[in-house]
Amino acid sequence: MRIVVTGGAGFLGSHLTDRLLLEGHEVIAIDNLITGSTANLEHIRDPRFTFIHYDVTNYLYVDGKVDFVFHFASPASPIDYLELPIQTLKVGSLGTHKALGLAKNKGAGFLLASTSEVYGDPQINPQPEEYWGNVNPVGPRGVYDEAKRFAEAMTMAYHTFHGVETRIVRIFNTYGPRNRPNDGRVVPSFINQAIRNQPITVFGKGDQTRSFCYVSDLIDGIYKLMLSNERMPVNIGNPHEMTILEFARLIIELTGSRSEIIYKPLPQDDPTVRRPDIAKARKLLGWEPKVDVRSGLTKTIEFYRKMMKVTGT
Ligand code: UDP
Q1: In angstroms, rounded to a whole number, what is the distance separating the alpha carbons of residues 70 and 6?
Q2: Which helix (H) or strand (E) holds 122?
Q3: Residue closest by Cα to atom 19 of ligand 1
Q4: What's the predicted TM-score (pTM) here?
Q5: Which of 117, 186, 208, 312 is the most exposed, fewest CB within 10 Å of its CB?
Q6: 10 and 134 both lie in a single domain
C-alpha cells in the first residue's frame, strides 16, 4: 500500500513508519517538525520512503494514489500542549479534517491517533471504550483532550456521511526510544534525571497512577487495528498500573541511580488514575502487550544513555 503518516517525524509516527516499511508498504511522512524531528527518520535508507515538511492544518495535497492515511500529528506531552495550545487545537481539528479529506478524496482507509485523555480524570478504573469521560474543557489540558474528542467525532462523521473506512485508536501512556528526553513526560524525565543522579521530580504525592506501554507493543496493536474493520474506538495500552511514586523507585533501581525523590506541585487536572481496559483489543484483534515494564524500561534507559554519550549532555 501507499500510506501517508502525518506526524511521521514524531515519536510514534516514526516507529509506525518503520513498521510500515518493514511490512513492505510505501510511506509518505508529513510533519511540520514543531515537536517531531528528522533525526527520528535519519536511519531510513529506503527508496519507498518520502518525507514532506508541511503543516497538515493546511490543505493537504499528495500526488498519485494513496491507500491509507494515519493521522498522528499532534503535540502529545502536557508541557508541549501547554506551550502550543493553539497549534494543538488546530492539528486535532483542522488537521484531522484535512487528513480525512485526503482519505476521502483518494478512497483511502484512515486511522486516527486518539488518546486516553478523552477519558479526562476518569471516574471509573480501568477505562473501557464505552466510558464517555470526565474532561474539563477550559482547563489547561482541555486544548488536547477536546481537540482529540472533536477529532473522534469528525472521524465518525466522515465514516457515517462519506463512507470513509475509518479506525480510531485510543493510545495510553507509551514510552520507548525516540521519546524526546526533555518533552516533560514522566518516563523520559525520570530516566534522564536518574542517569544524571539529579533529583527525581514526583508531582503531588505520587499516588496518581499510570499504566505504561512499550512502543513496539503499541505499534503492533495499531497495525492490527489497521487490518481490521472496526469503526468504533479501541484502547491500546498496557494494563499494568503503577503509582508514580512506585514508578520513580523502579527507575532508580533499574538505573542504579543515587538520585533522591523530591516532590513538586501537582499540575492542574492531572488525572488521578489511568488504566486501559483492553478486553476489546484482545477479542477483536487478538492483541495484547508482550513487553513487561522492566524489560521495556531497560531498553529505554539504554537508549538515553547512548544519546547522552553522543551529545555529551
Ligand atoms: N509526573 C511527575 N513528574 C514529572 C513528570 C510527570 O510526577 O517530572 C507525573 C504527572 O503529574 C502525571 C504522570 O507523571 O501524574 C504522567 O505524566 P505525563 O506527563 O507523562 O503524562 P500524562 O499521563 O499526565 O498525560
Answers
A1: 6
A2: none
A3: 185
A4: 0.97
A5: 312
A6: yes
